[in-house]
Design brief:
Protein-Tyrosine Phosphatase, Chain A; Tyr_Pase_dom; 0% strand; single chain
């Protein structure tokens, strides 16, 4: 019997987001749309949700981190331009002094507050779920991209991070 048949026989709704092991979803935008639908249909209605993958830590942990970020449960994102000098966070060559590293192209620099938020959400979910949550560079990179995606939406006035507030206050 297949997983889908088992779930259907229990009359449980389920949603799949196929993602290869060790990797992250292919599209931040598509993932965010999918997550928004799940939050609206279940979380904001008080319905418990189980997120799982084969091992239950890498991909499932990534989704749990994004869920936490989307709900604004780990603090929120500054939508103002980053006015502090960029600290280059890289581990390309650990034996070369940071000042001797070539500068990163602008597309590869990451805002300090983005990294702090990603570190905070991973730490929170690891404490709640497993120390192995978010296992690969690709998954961390996805979280960075997801925070930037949410920042972009918030900067354009699209409602993010306040989905709980919206539910409490009403439309």
């Amino acid at each position: 019997m297949s997983f889908a048949n088992d779930i259907n026989s229990l009359h449980l709704p389920y949603s799949r987001l196929p993602t290869p092991e060790g990797l992250a979803p292919a599209s931040v935008t598509t993932f965010d749309e999918h997550l928004t639908r799940l939050i609206d249909a279940y979380t904001l209605q008080g319905i418990p949700v189980l997120v799982h993958c084969r091992g239950g830590v890498g991909r499932a942990g990534l989704v749990a981190c994004c869920w936490t970020l989307k709900l604004g449960l780990c603090g929120w994102i500054d939508t103002q331009p980053d006015v502090q000098p960029q600290q280059q966070h890289t581990s390309r060559f650990s034996y070369i002094a940071p000042e001797d590293l070539p500068p990163l192209p602008p597309s590869e620099t990451v805002r300090r507050d983005t990294l702090q938020l990603v570190e905070r959400v991973i730490s929170l979910v690891r404490r709640r779920r497993s120390l192995k949550v978010v296992e690969t560079f690709e998954q961390v990179r996805f979280l960075v991209d997801y925070v930037e995606h949410l920042r972009g939406r918030a900067g354009r006035g699209v409602e993010v991070g306040s989905v709980l507030e919206r539910n409490i206050r009403g439309p």
